[in-house]
Each structure stands twice: as structure tokens, then as C-alpha cells.
Amino acid sequence: MKITFILLTIAISLVITSIQFSEPSFNGSSPGCSGSGCHSFSDGDVSVALIDSITVEVTVSGTSSRVGGELVDIGGNVVDVINSTTSNPFTLTAPAPGYYVINAGYDNPQRDWDSAAVNLIVPVELSGFIASVNENDVTLNWQTATELNNSGFDVERTEANNEWEKVGFVTGNGTTTEINSYTFTDKDVPAGTYNYRIKQIDYDGTFEYFELEQLISISSPDEITLLQNYPNPFNPSTTIKFVIHKKSNVIITIFNTIGEDVLTLVNEEKIAGSYEVNFDAAGFTSGIYFYKLQAGNFVETKKMILMK
Predict the structure, then answer these.
(1) Is 241 found in the same domain as 203?
(2) Is residue 14 in a domain?
(3) Does residue 241 lie in a domain region?
(4) Where does residue 265 rank: exposed (0-12), middle (13-18), buried (19+ CB within 10 A)?
């Protein structure tokens, strides 16, 4: 399967129509047949499934005998033919995407055949995959026009031509002809220069990559900053954000109004960048608490209020 993107896609649409022609004698010299004994199918006796942007699978219902079929382009030229086969369904392959008619049928219990029209639309180049940066957060946006069997997208990131790393997954919309917009935010990315790509994955596991055309740069902060927790007052949890300008051993501790340490939230080495940590106070009583950031020679303390 191929997935069709707006400016980044392969679109496939399918229209089935019933047309009365003549007997099923497909030899590839001209479309249809010229003999007698022609009968038309009832609607649905010829069905078509799209394999990819140039291949279709044809099923002829109502028979256990040999079947046949042909693929005819918009100029009336036969571009692929199966004259007679016991395989049902069988496949026909076009030389390129475009509009085609499929004639298919059988000769037992009587000579019947019918037609189905398919539209294999030309693929479109990727150009709608964009990114924006807000401090240490990178937001990716992309859009699809149609989708076929789309399970979703892995989001991957690399720095300085290192190995690609999966940083997230966005669920697809299966099969649809509607326009769909997608977004993903890679939060708290360390300082550096990166590239991103999305890996579109089908339900059967097949995949295709689409790479961002621009590099993303995350600048190192100039100083250490401890931000006010949010929300404040809070119940029962709150988020504490901080920024460090170089690799440091970072310690964040929570203590009460009499100076007792009640919890250590962070105690590890971190590289330059923006970070956030969650403080869950479900087991604490209401009141005033303080949180302290230590990084190298830097020390700062802020107050927060737990209100249950």
C-alpha cells in the first residue's frame, strides 16, 4: 500500500461501474470482444481491489470455470491481459498511474463479461511536512489527502548523522479519502542540531519514510533558571520546570516549613537543556512546601502551596 499526502503522497481512488459488452474473449489485440453470445453481469460480478498505485486484483463472481480479463487505458489500448486462468482473483498491472477500464468474465455456464473502472492517480511529492521550534520543544505538522490501510506514523530523530531514534507514534486513519492533519511535539529536546523523519506504516507492516528537508537547531540556554511550579496552588500534583546551561549534576528536593526534606525529585547528571518534573503530593497534607534546585554552585528555592 502507498499512502497519499497533500504535497506528500500517493493517492488511489476507486470507482466501480457496470457496462454491458460482448463475450469474454481477451486476446490483447483490442479491447473487449467481437464474437456473439454476449451477456451482461448483474452489478458486482466484477470487483476490483487496489494492490498499489499500478496493480489491481480482479475477482469474477458467479463461476468456478476459467476466467480472463484485460486492462485498457484511456486511449483504448490494452496494456495488460490475462486470456484464460484458473486463478480467481487474478492481477493486472498498469505501466503507470492513470485512468483504466477492466474487462473481465468467464465462458461457463454461459459467456458473460462486464467492466470496472479504476483511477490510479499520479503520486505527489512531499512538501507539506514542516516543523516549528519553541524553546526546547519541536512541533512537526503534516497532512494527507487520502489514506489506504494506514496504521500510523513513527516519528524519528537523529543528531549529527547518528542513528535514528524513535521519539513517538501518531495513529493513522486507516482508509479514507478525506484530508487529515497530523501533529506531534517532541518536548524538552537537548541543545544540538537535529533532523526528523516520519515512518508511515501499513497494517501489514510495510512502510515508507518521509524526511524533513530542514535541520532543526536547539540553542543552549545562557544560564540556569528555576521556574515557578504550575499550577500553584495545586492538588494533588504540580509541574516544576528548570533550565540548565551546561552539563551538571542536578538535585531537586522538596521540604516543609520547618526545613525537613520530604522528597528528592531529581538527583542525576543532565546535559544543557530545558526539563520538567512532576511532583505528586497525594500522600502529603495541605500546607506550604518549598522546592530547591541545586546545580553546580547554583542554588535557588521557590514556594508552593498544596491545597486539598
Answers:
(1) no
(2) no
(3) yes
(4) middle
